[in-house]
Write a structure and sequence with these properties.
Length: 214
């Protein structure tokens, strides 16, 4: 059902709404380009995240294997004693950045404390285990950054899709209806004027003939 048009059918309004329609179409094209670019970026990030997650899971699996070896050699109580000697503070810095207008946090590990239990003369397995978990933690942070960006891109894509639908299904249709209405009315006016002028000419010609006949 066509939307009711309550616009004065003038040439000025016709030009005004033709300009508005062009702006809507331009905005639609630009948003569509952004949507496609973000969608392509999302596919790339998704592939990277899948690969990174597999790498992280493998790293964690290897770290736990090393932990089991260490626990079997030193015992859990001894590992707990050594773990108390390791500083617990991990520093992660975050910087607000944007990708095509999508804000996200760029994460970077500023500091991971180094183990300090070498003077105990313990098994090298504990050093290897700590190293494995440090590597795994780095991968966890990298994955968190990627997944955060992917989530924000998805939210942005949803917003863009709503705007695209509004531009295409509401504003474009509304302005096209207005333009069609004004054009139809102006065309009817023109036809009416042409008909009126034609009738007027006929009357003038008829009077001229009457005068010549007198």
């Amino acid at each position: 059902m066509r939307e009711a048009v309550n616009i004065s059918p003038t040439k000025d309004n016709l030009l005004k709404y033709k300009k508005k329609l062009k702006l809507v179409e331009r905005a639609y094209d630009l948003l569509r380009e952004k949507y496609e670019a973000l969608l392509m970026k999302l596919h790339i990030i998704t592939a990277e995240a899948i690969s990174l997650r597999e790498k992280m899971e493998k790293s964690l699996s290897e770290a736990y294997i090393e932990y089991i070896k260490t626990e079997s050699e030193l015992g859990r109580d001894m590992i707990n004693v050594f773990s108390e000697t390791i500083p617990k503070e991990v520093t992660i810095s975050s910087k607000h950045v944007e990708y095509m207008g999508v804000p996200f946090k760029d994460l970077e590990i500023s500091h991971i404390p180094e183990p300090s239990y070498g003077f105990f003369g313990i098994s090298s397995l504990l050093w290897v285990t700590a190293k494995r978990f440090r590597e795994s933690f780095t991968l966890v942070v990298q994955l968190a950054e990627l997944e955060n960006l992917a989530y924000r891109i998805i939210k942005n894509l949803q917003s863009i899709q709503l705007n695209l639908n509004a531009l295409d299904k509401i504003y474009r249709v509304r302005f096209q209806n207005i333009i069609k209405y004004v054009e139809d009315v102006l065309e009817a006016y023109d036809l009416e004027n042409i008909y009126t002028i034609k009738k007027l000419k006929q009357k003038i010609e008829a009077r001229k003939k009457e005068k010549r006949g007198v």
